[in-house]
Design brief:
Elements: H1 2-23, E1 41-45, E2 51-55, H2 62-70, E3 76-81, E4 84-91, H3 96-100, E5 110-114, H4 124-136, E6 140-145, H5 147-150, H6 154-179, E7 186-191, H7 193-204, E8 211-215, E9 236-241, E10 260-264, H8 276-293, E11 297-301, H9 304-309, E12 316-318, E13 330-334
Parallel strand pairs: 5-6, 5-7, 7-8, 8-9, 9-10, 10-13
Antiparallel strand pairs: 1-2, 3-4, 3-6, 11-12, 11-13
Helix pairs in contact: 2-6, 4-8, 6-7
Protein name: Pancreatic triacylglycerol lipase-like isoform X1
Pfam families: Lipase
Keywords: Secreted, Signal
Length: about 350
Amino acid sequence: MKNIQMEKIVILTILFAFLAYTASAVPVNSEFSEDREYPRFIEFPDGEGVMHTVDLEAELDHELLDEISRNPANNIYLLFTRRNPQSPQTLVMNDIASIYNSNFNPHVPTIVIAHGWLSNQETNINQIIRDAALNREDCNVIVLDWRRLASSLYNTAVRGVPAVGRGLGQFLNFVHFVTGAPFSSMHLVGFSLGAHLVGNAGRELNGRVARVTALDPAGPLWNYNSDRVKPEDAVYVEGIHTDGGYTVGGLGIGSNVGNADFYVNGGISQPGCLTNICNHNNAWRYFAATITYNHIIGKECSSSWQITWNSCKGVELHMGNNDLRKFGSGRFRSNTSRRYPY
C-alpha cells in the first residue's frame, strides 16, 4: 500500500513538473503577454535584418518629436500601379496636381504598405508585397516612406508613431476628397512598428477603412501602450503573429490586436528559422504569399493550449490575402511549410 502511495506521489510530481514546463511554452496572447517585461537593453533588427542594441530608456529626441507632431503629414507617399509597377510617382499632401497627374485610379483597391524601424522605401517588404499585389489585381499600391522618424532611436520612433499614423490618415482623407476613392477600398498593411502606425492611421479615419493588417506588431514598449493597433481601427483588423515569444528575444507583441489574430505555427518560432529576425520577417513573407495563393488557412482556437498543441478545431478562416470584404473574429492557429509559398 505504501509503495502504491509513493508511486502516486512520484507520478503527480512528474505531472506537475510537466504542466509547469509546458505552461511556460504557451504562446503569448492576451491572457499572458501584457505582463511581459523587457530589460532596458534589447536587440532589435533594422529593415535589412541587422541587429542593433536598443536602450529602451534612452533620452528621447524631443526636437524631432515636436517637428513630427507639428507636421505629421511630413511623409513620402510613393504610388505604384500596373502602368508604373517599378518607377514610383510621388503623391504630395495638399497638392491636388500630384494626385491628378498620377496614375492613381479611384475605382480600384488601394493598398498602403508601412515599413518598420530603421527602414525606408527600399526595404524588401515594400517590393515583395507591392509585386504580389499588382500581379494579383489592378490596384493602387502606396508605399509610405517614414524614414525621418524610423531612423531615430527606437524609443523615439515609438513615441512618434501615432503622429505619423495620423499624418497617413490625413493623407488618405485628402486622396478621398480629391478623387472620391472610398475608404471601403483601402487596405492598410504595416510591419512591426509600421503595424501600430497603420492602426493609428485607421483610427484617424474613425475606423472607416476596409482593412488593417498588422504584420507581427512590434512588442517592446507596446504592451501597455494605448496607441497600439486595435480592433476598432478599421472595419476589419487582422493580426499575424510570428515572433511573439515569451522570451526576451521575441520581437513581436504576441497578443491579440485585431478582430482576428493568427498565431502562425504557434506564433513563436517559424519553420526553417533559427533567429528572432527570421521569425519576425516571416510575417510579411507569409502575407505576400497569401496575396498570390490565398492558401494559408487558420482554425479558431478556444484556448492558448490549443494554439500551443496545434489542436484547434474551430471554424476556418483564410489568413492574409487581399479580400476587402473579409471578416472574422477570434484567435486562429495556422500552419506553414518552411519554403515559399509556405
